[in-house]
Design goal:
Elements: H1 2-25, H2 30-39, H3 62-66, H4 79-92, E1 96-103, E2 109-115, H5 118-122, H6 124-135, H7 142-151, E3 154-160, H8 168-182, H9 186-194, E4 195-200, H10 205-219, H11 252-264, E5 268-274, E6 279-281, E7 285-288, H12 294-313, E8 319-320, E9 326-327, H13 335-339, E10 343-349, E11 358-361, E12 391-394, H14 396-416, H15 418-438, E13 443-446, H16 453-465, E14 471-473, E15 477-479, E16 482-484, E17 489-492, H17 498-505, H18 525-529, E18 534-536, E19 546-548, E20 557-559, E21 564-567, H19 574-581, E22 588-590, E23 594-596, E24 599-601, E25 606-609, H20 612-620, E26 624-628, E27 636-638, E28 644-647, H21 654-665, E29 671-673, H22 675-680, H23 683-686, E30 689-692, H24 699-704, H25 738-750, E31 754-758, H26 763-767, E32 775-777, E33 789-794, E34 809-813, E35 819-821, H27 827-830, E36 831-835, E37 842-844, E38 857-864, E39 867-872, H28 886-894, H29 902-905
Parallel strand pairs: 3-4, 3-5, 5-10, 6-8, 7-9, 20-26, 28-29, 28-30, 30-31, 31-39
Antiparallel strand pairs: 1-2, 2-4, 6-10, 11-12, 13-17, 13-18, 14-17, 14-19, 15-16, 21-25, 21-26, 22-25, 22-27, 23-24, 32-35, 33-34, 33-36, 33-37, 36-38, 38-39
Length: 909
Amino acid sequence: MKKQLVILAAAALILSAAGASALAQQAQDPDFAKSVKEWTTRPEFLSPLTDHLPKVSGIPSPKDVLGYYVGTPKKLTHTADLYRYYRALESATKRVKVIPVGRTDEGREQVVVVIADEETIRNLDTYKGYLAKLADPRGLSDDQAKQILAQAKLVYFFSGGLHSAETGPPEMLMELAYRLVAEEGLVFDQVRKNMIVMIAPAFEPDGRDRYVDWYYHHKINEETESDRVPGPPYWGKYIYHDNNRDINYSQVTMRNWLKFYLDWHPPIMHDLHESVPFLYTFSGQAPQNPTLDPILYAELPWLSNFEMTKMFSYGMPGVWDHGYVDMWSPGYLGFMSSNHNGMLRMYETFGNGGANTMKRTVAPEPGAGPGLGGENQTTREWYRPLPPYREVVWSMRNNTNYMETGVLSALEVASANAKTLLQNFYEKSRNSIQSGFNDAPFGFVIPANQADMTRVAFIVNILRLQGIEVGRATSEVKLKEGSYPAGSLIVKRNQPYGRLAKILLEKQVYPDQNLRTYDDAAWTMGLMSHAEVKEISDKAILDVPVELVDTLNVRGTIQGDGSLLAVLHNGSNSLVALRYRLKDVKFEAIEQSFKSGDTEIPAGSFLIPASDRVRTEIQNLSLKAVALSAPPSVPRHDLDLPRLAMFSTWGSTQDVGWVRYAFDHFELKYDLIYKEQIRKGNLRALYDVILIPNQSRSAKSIVFDVESKSTPIDYAKSNEFPTLGMYGESSDITGGMGLEGVVELDKFVKAGGVLITLGVASFLPADYGLTPTIDAQRTTPQFYAPGPIVEAEIMQPANPIFYGYTSKTIPVRYANGPLLRVPVDDRKKEILMRFSGTDRSVLSGLMRGVAETRDRPAIVDVPSGRGRVLMFATNPCYRWQNLGEFNMLANAILNYNDTPKASSSATAE
Ligand SMILES: [Zn+2]
């Protein structure tokens, strides 16, 4: 094996010398060279890798199909045209295959374009099989592994356009594909021979098309930075930029990519983004997740530094690594690779949010605050020896040159070391299995006797989606940690994705309070779901007999016979779906628990007249019910459904999108309303409950939203731009609800409406006087809480919000909402839940300055006129993660007009 590597390295050395003569032999497109030189704003922004384009008869270049070169000013390409190009390439050569992957929310195709030499393309399934063996090497002898490694090919997967405003990568990838097919020279030959290159042309196809429409409608005439119009209100259907934070793969588009990944196991995924100048190449800086393989942490800077070396040798300034994104959260989309023993790579190049050339100010303005936006990326640092310029005229073609030169350099080093990288992939897979034999925890038990198994099923099925094996214990399990009934779910660590299981299920212990992290510090699935997941350090778990679970289906049960069904409120999020599915049926909620035979029927349980339809839905939704012959003698109330509206700003739809997704998933019906509907007023006549999800940065930005420009910015349907005006329409998205909108919200509440605010939106009622007695304060600059999971204390357990919650304290995700302050005399009545705020109360992740939250309200319920305002300082609907908290929101909606008998059951302070 060693000998072979030496030979490959030698081949790589010869190649740059020989490359030039091969190039000379190919006919070139002179117009391309001329145009690219013209569109590149400075000579040092061009490289010898992208200053020319070969012409090969019979093989279409992007221009042959689309009519323009990649990087042409004012040209962006819709997905249908991207796919049209790749399919033309596929028809013209045996070096390309387009593989369908799935369909998006809006029905667009997702495809992967595969490029390699003819032999490889002919035998793709064989190579896929080799990778599957390396991904799961259980049962392979060392000799067999060597044989497979000798024959296998490295898959290097590129993706662009996950973030729709980052418009360059989907354009560049077409030119890259053409070069990989058509260009001669040792690097290209070596790539085609030693590797399989895959390209996801648009990682978020719905958003790509919407953004391109928006660009042609609103942004095409931008000439300067100050002309720039904000992006469209939506990219994909729901979650905007957070499509790169969908750790549980809720979105159908993201789930399709994961399925493709687990079918193919590409050892390297390289996700192309745009933000910081001129090219940042991810190298996995601290904090690093310690569970991932050390090999990965060595590979990342190796490849990044190679790219920097090459690009500096071409004289290209502003290439750097380190210093931007860390390696803590496993929730970024491309992390599917690192999480499965592969390698996520990532670029940020500099983009203009379109394809217009303009002067850009790169250094931050003096006095810009801390945080990523305020950081100066034009300084010389040890990881940035040739920094970007402070000001620059920047073009789409510059952006293309940078990305493409970087990517071709990456392919040069990867193809020269393809066997090493494959060997590493195999070692990382093997190490993951071995770590399950060597290192505690050796596994996890999810006990089968939990009151609500629907949230257990959520966890298990996400683990299964991630390719993690989960078993069902065939008999009672006895371990040092305790005994668990037969049927309990067992996750053993000695499996290929055992490390990922640990990462997802363990408590996150943050390594250094002084390090900031790019995203969430915590994601522990059991805590987020309020389901019991036991970490097991008894190695005997590896020998527990299990049957492997494909999908965990929880059976709904109905005990006994009778004319009335009591559906147990055990915290399942399917309860609200049951209410909505049977919206014409009379439901009551019981206010106190009682016993029916041996079964405890908890407070909040539904009473429903029995019928076949009701029984069927209870079973479909995996709920538990007990049949009764007569109503119990406990207080109860009607569970009528409110007319519900959800408010969204136009400028910050992302966090609202997560709530929309959850409501759609759990079948709650609501009107999505914007400033237009709020300003029109008459809200109480239309709605009983208005929900303002977490969104934007402050109350002020929720009220005033997108800044007005001299001309209106519409988001409306038209034949020319069919993707605009989806999920809401506006003739001008600027200006916000304004103070007149706030007045309408106040009128709504005073006339008997219920206003619910989540997270940052809870600043609004306090700051704008809807709840004049409540103060909303902010933490000090020393405080730092990147989404830890902390303990909160329920103060009024009898309040319907807490139906289904049985402990006095519960885990909640800290949302950086307001530090609320309630007058002393009102506290007993109005504070429903508060943060414990002790060091011990940080259950997972990092909270620096925890004492600032001590005893601060987490939920308050404030009367106003005939209505009330329910303010969550938490966000009970965060990124499809904290599903244990969602029921507080669902309960608040279902019991919106059932004022709790607070004083009788309030816990003394
Ligand atoms: Zn991005």
